[in-house]
Amino acid sequence: MFNYTLRRLLFTIPTLLFISLVIFLLLDLAPNDPTGNLPLTIPPEVRAMIRTNLGLDQPVWWRYILWLRQFFVYEPLNLIEQMFHITIGDGHRLRILSYATRSPVVDLIVERMPQTLWVVGMSYVVGIMIALPIGVISAYKQYSWFDQTGTFVSMIGFSVPTFFTGVLLIVIFSVMVPSDSFFWFPSIYDTTLKVTDLASFGKQVRQMVMPVFVLALYNAAQISRFMRASMLDNLNQDYVRTARAKGLSEQVVVLVHVLRNSLIPVVTVIALGIPQVFGGAIITEQVFKVNGLGQLLIIGIQGADIPLVQTLTFIFAVLIVLFNLVADVLYGILDPRILYD
After folding, report:
1. Residue closest to 37 by CA, chosen among 287, 306, 296
2. Distances (CA, A) of 313 to 16, 92, 103, 109, 306
3. Nearest to residue 214, comparing CAs of 279, 283, 133, 118?
4. Environment class of residue 263 by beta-carbon count within 10 Å: exposed (0-12), middle (13-18) or buried (19+)?
5. Residue 115: pLDDT over 90
6. Positive or negative torsion for Cα 152, 158, 160, 164
7. Could you give phi then psi for residue 33, rounded to 5 degrees?
8. Which of 26, 79, 188, 321 is the 20 to 30 A CA-CA neighbour of 258?
9. The model's pTM
10. Are 223 and 270 within 8 A, CB to CB?
11. DSSP 8-class letter at 220
12. What is the pLDDT of residues 196-236, one digit of tens each?
């Protein structure tokens, strides 16, 4: 497994370089102009000076090489300096700067990351905790009232868009319910709230309830369907009948033998969904005004902030490639029959 993991890591290098080139060219050749949002009264020569200061007068290939060096060399060195409070070299490096704020892009991402992990990460964990037992019980009690109810709720959660679910919850629990009621929840996420005591912790939990529920319903609907289908495929296998014939209890057969083999395809769905946690829920963050990475990406696209969009998009691509590798490695842990030659 170590050799397989090492080979896959080496193979990801040209893969990520190709992805970075595609992302860079698509965004650089797109008809976006960083000066397009400036007032029309600005003279053309001033616009040309702004483009020169932004480095847009340089050739495409040179700007791509510079961006690669900034992303893979300068930004990691800067993170190491901040984490360990040391200085490497002279400490002055040309970092990836946002066109709009002229701030380092990585600093903007690190600033928004906690809000995204709090909301989107918690919703993903809650969705998995709900989906796995529902999928197992639905498959074991196929066509029962529990299975039919779970199927109905899953179809609703997967079919109804998150912006509709979010607005519906806001209308019910923020508009129709009085503000002094126990069932009232704030419709706008306060990103400036700091948890310092029990009261502030309660406010944090209350403002997370609706966005977490919206995303958890969507994630649970998808994962529970995969879990149910995988369990049904394994419940009728020969090894299950053999385990029952040996006198093993039904609980051991289902939770040890069947569940372990059924988790193999579900691991792919869960692992490939983890990058979405870091990417943020763009629509849901817009509905509840969560100041996370999804909203940051929307701001970058609207403002033609190419370095910000390039860096965020490439980080998402890196996470997808890495967690795809994690899923492949977990296959061997869940199923010893899988050999990595």
Report:
1. 306
2. 12, 26, 18, 12, 10
3. 283
4. buried
5. no
6. positive
7. -125, 120
8. 321
9. 0.81
10. yes
11. H
12. 888 888 888 899 999 999 989 988 998 999 999 999 998 88
